Amino acid sequence: MKRIAATDIETLGVVSRQNYLKLREERKLQQLKDEVEDDRYLFEEIPLSESEYRRTMYKEEICNLLVANKLDENHNEYYRIPEAFDDLKCAAVNQEKRFSVATQGYYDNHKEEAWEDNQIKKAFCDKKFEFKREITLEKSRAKRLVLNEERKKLPIYAFRDEFLQAVNDHQIIVIVGETGSGKTTQIPQYLHEDGYTKHGRMIACTQPRRVAAMSVAARVSQEMGVKLGHEVGYSIRFEDCTSEKTVVKYMTDGMLLREFLAQPELDSYSVVMVDEAHERTLSTDILFGLVKDVARARPDLKLLISSATLDAEKFSNYFDLAPIFKIPGRRYPVEIQYTKSPEANYLDAAVVTTLQIHATQSPGDILVFLTGQEEIETVEQILKHRVRGLGTKIAELIICPIYANLPTELQAKIFEPTPEGARKVVLATNIAETSLTIDGIKYVIDPGFCKMKTYNPRTGIESLLVTPISKASAMQRAGRSGRTGPGKCFRLYTAYSFQNDLDDNTSPEIQRTNLANVVLTLYSLGIEHEKLLRFEFMDPPPADAIKKAMELLYNLGALNGQGKLTKVGRRMAEFPLDPMLSKMIVASEKYKCSDEIISIAAMLSVGNSIFYRPKDKQVHADNARLNFHSGDVGDHIAYLNVFNSWKETNYSSEWCYENYIQVRCMKHARDIRDQLAGLLERVEIELISNSNDLDAIKKSILSGFFPHAAKLQKNGTYGRVKHLQTVHIHPSSGLAEVVPRLVLYHELVLTTKEYMRQVTEIKPEWLLEIAPHYYQLNDVEDSSSKKMPRGCGLAH
DNA sequence: GAGCACTGC
């Protein structure tokens, strides 16, 4: 192609080269954005299935990659783009070519022609949009007719009148609806049709997951023939898609819990349906207690507890012997096979079983449940190796790993249809148990383990342990094979084990988590002190955990000596964060650095997967990370540096890739930060920046995290101040080599050792200044000048 | 010098 010198361009007098390039970038960006917008539009009009929805999301990410020019060879290897997006890649390349040609023409033909070209383009785009819109409307009309027929075929349709009668007769009903019964989509509609939304009151239906709330709302709006967000809407964090018209509202359970803060009697609702109650999320468990109480105060409020399991008796007993309404499901049979004897190595057994299925069983994809990323990577490698050994005698086996931390572009692979003659094997964590469904799975391999979080209220340590799953969980896993046709489930344990070793149900989250936030929420709902100790939990958490939470809240100044919520506590409760983080924000008012503190809080709550560390580029990734630690500022300030640097690049995705940072996490952090900024206004704390005074920022952090102080001991390890407990700085910390005398940490995790994650150096006098009620002089004195506490002496 | 299941506000 003919090159044009910069001087030529200037003499043409059209645009300066820089301006031209900028214009070109902008147009390219706009074009891509338009495509995504079009897809969004489609999403609004026609409810997407979950896999379609995810594909839309992935497409957006791909567009970001394209914009960030990540399609060149190097990055292609680093962020492999799934084949399904080949068309998009081609389009982008063609687009690029067309731009080049147009560029040439642009200069050759001068301003007018180019302008005309632009006009044509615009007209073309308008036309395309109009056309797409027409098709969409037509499709949606046709779909509505089909949907109406489909509604009548659902198992629940036959029980419609019987169900409405039951709701009329009873205030609380426990619904047992197997998967595919249509309860989630139909029940709110029936109630709406039966007049429960008169008098301006809504029907609420809670879901444990955001995607579920969105896609179900989209589906129902389509069935009812209304625009999503009007009569039917959804409400999830960062996104309220409802209006004054809304009568049927799908929401996450956590969102309803938040709404309780504003309206403790749930005045705007006539019916509350707690769906997927058997999952026993932290939020559902608290909702149970609250909603049961409200039902007593408001006889007109109807309560539906919907669960998929057969232990509905327990729910019924809890809700004062509420009647149980059973709805059959529509499922295919699943044949279950056990091993004859226990397997010594379940990874090996999983590989062997996979290959056996591949060699002997009829077509259909395989889903293997593993406990984590590491196992998945190991099995992937072994499988690849073994398949290579089999040569061409056998059909192709496509291996797809999936876990939550896998970059989004790579996750898309599992939704690609399996090519004719090949077989797909999906290696998944628990994410495939409930959070996402994969079409075409016919065989499930279940080794019977998962990783589970446990919390020790005495030490405050959380740890992830590989644990046997429960019977309920095993059934759920098996059910994943019978979604589109009869399936088979291979359990890598004996039938005896299943009967005798596995618990019936997974212990609810509320029994194995830090309750500080739960207790604060309940306090701000007026459930204080004795009332809280009497709170009707379906499965009460350990008394120790509640006591520990109260103690912490008292130390943070959220509760006073009489066990009442203080003004500080009330402000803290506004933030959807761990109380220590909330306290840190409230304290930032005093140190005039709220701007920096909410950035840090947002980054901390996104968690530990911000820094991406690919196996083959660990050194690069670590070096990139160290750039944010200059001056040994500590991990908290490093997080602040990351966020601010990203902000300075105008939230560039490209910058993230260069620095081995996960874009997804950063976007999430930005969303949280925006929300926190809004909440600051609510609690009347001014947004002030004080970026030069690092001590002020550290003091704010310490105001929330002073119980997490650890000091260096003679033997080089750390000891928690106030607790005789040895801890270590996590090697990923920027301070791991610095070894300061006194530090605060964000969290303590137990892996091979007890590690402090996210560490910042503090001064001893700050402890006395900020927490005189908690620390005494002898706590902060240099440990070397003092006798060693018992049990913490040197080894040997 | 080391490993992080999954959600949600």
From TrEMBL:
<dbReference type="Pfam" id="PF21010">
    <property type="entry name" value="HA2_C"/>
</dbReference>
<dbReference type="Pfam" id="PF00271">
    <property type="entry name" value="Helicase_C"/>
</dbReference>
<keyword id="KW-0067">ATP-binding</keyword>
<dbReference type="InterPro" id="IPR014001">
    <property type="entry name" value="Helicase_ATP-bd"/>
</dbReference>
<keyword id="KW-0347">Helicase</keyword>
<dbReference type="GO" id="GO:0005524">
    <property type="term" value="F:ATP binding"/>
</dbReference>
<comment type="similarity">
    <text>Belongs to the DEAD box helicase family. DEAH subfamily. PRP2 sub-subfamily.</text>
</comment>
<dbReference type="InterPro" id="IPR002464">
    <property type="entry name" value="DNA/RNA_helicase_DEAH_CS"/>
</dbReference>
<dbReference type="GO" id="GO:0071013">
    <property type="term" value="C:catalytic step 2 spliceosome"/>
</dbReference>
<keyword id="KW-0507">mRNA processing</keyword>
<dbReference type="GO" id="GO:0016787">
    <property type="term" value="F:hydrolase activity"/>
</dbReference>
<dbReference type="GO" id="GO:0003724">
    <property type="term" value="F:RNA helicase activity"/>
</dbReference>
<dbReference type="InterPro" id="IPR007502">
    <property type="entry name" value="Helicase-assoc_dom"/>
</dbReference>
<dbReference type="Pfam" id="PF07717">
    <property type="entry name" value="OB_NTP_bind"/>
</dbReference>
<keyword id="KW-0508">mRNA splicing</keyword>
<dbReference type="Pfam" id="PF00270">
    <property type="entry name" value="DEAD"/>
</dbReference>
<keyword id="KW-0747">Spliceosome</keyword>
<dbReference type="InterPro" id="IPR001650">
    <property type="entry name" value="Helicase_C-like"/>
</dbReference>
<dbReference type="Pfam" id="PF04408">
    <property type="entry name" value="WHD_HA2"/>
</dbReference>
<keyword id="KW-0547">Nucleotide-binding</keyword>
<dbReference type="InterPro" id="IPR011709">
    <property type="entry name" value="DEAD-box_helicase_OB_fold"/>
</dbReference>
<protein>
    <recommendedName>
        <fullName>RNA helicase</fullName>
        <ecNumber>3.6.4.13</ecNumber>
    </recommendedName>
</protein>
<keyword id="KW-0378">Hydrolase</keyword>
<dbReference type="InterPro" id="IPR027417">
    <property type="entry name" value="P-loop_NTPase"/>
</dbReference>
<dbReference type="InterPro" id="IPR011545">
    <property type="entry name" value="DEAD/DEAH_box_helicase_dom"/>
</dbReference>
<dbReference type="InterPro" id="IPR048333">
    <property type="entry name" value="HA2_WH"/>
</dbReference>
<dbReference type="GO" id="GO:0008380">
    <property type="term" value="P:RNA splicing"/>
</dbReference>
<feature type="domain" description="Helicase C-terminal">
    <location>
        <begin position="346"/>
        <end position="526"/>
    </location>
</feature>
<dbReference type="GO" id="GO:0003723">
    <property type="term" value="F:RNA binding"/>
</dbReference>
<dbReference type="GO" id="GO:0006397">
    <property type="term" value="P:mRNA processing"/>
</dbReference>
<feature type="domain" description="Helicase ATP-binding">
    <location>
        <begin position="164"/>
        <end position="328"/>
    </location>
</feature>
